[in-house]
Specification:
The structure holds two protein chains of two kinds. Chain A contains no helices and nine strands. Chain A is mostly beta strands. A five-stranded mixed beta sheet of chain A has the order 1-9-8-3-4, with no helix packed on it. A four-stranded antiparallel beta sheet of chain A has the order 2-7-6-5, with no helix packed on it. Chain A is globular, with a radius of gyration of 14 Å. In chain B, strand 5 and strand 6 form a beta hairpin. Chain B has no helices and eleven strands. The chains are: A mainly beta, B mainly beta. The interface between A and B is medium-sized, with 27 and 32 residues.
Chain lengths: 113, 116
Amino acid sequence: DAKTTQPNSMESNEEEPVHLPCNHSTISGTDYIHWYRQLPSQGPEYVIHGLTSNVNNRMASLAIAEDRKSSTLILHRATLRDAAVYYCILGAIWGGSQGNLIFGKGTKLSVKP
Amino acid sequence: NAGVTQTPKFRVLKTGQSMTLLCAQDMNHEYMYWYRQDPGMGLRLIHYSVGEGTTAKGEVPDGYNVSRLKKQNFLLGLESAAPSQTSVYFCASSYWGLTKGADTQYFGPGTRLTVL
């Protein structure tokens, strides 16, 4: 399975945008890029995913580099509730993976009031 | 919709005791998973199921058994608990897994298990 590299931690101020980077230089053409987050003492929750094009939803935006070797999760206005560990995960479309997510250590985001 | 629920939320066992963790989902998902999360670490897959009556080993299956007798339930068993199994256990479910395109996993709230 292709691996991802994320900073261990990041800080942000409340109501400012946050850009969480992820490197995945060994990504294959069939790997989707998924982002999940885990709030303190809770299970992970889905944030967003994409394949090649940038994606937006009500929670965040996902910017994918043209060569797909990196991506950035964008929180447009951080709130205190966004303080969590954010995981960037690659998932294969066909074969190989049986559907499980390979979690790394993620990026711990702190949001200051 | 309750989503994914887990029972119990907390449990303390003595070494050698056995227990079963129950995961239930009401979304008619085919795939179900059991993960464990140790302090400061990401989640690791223990076992998973691709449908009713099926189970398969994940990354760290030793010391655990699972059963999927009903589509909505996925049970994780510890036959003889060891201190190394102290962890937070998360159950998840998804429609068809990542093998058929992008899919979303829905996680339960977790079970915090301590083995003394």
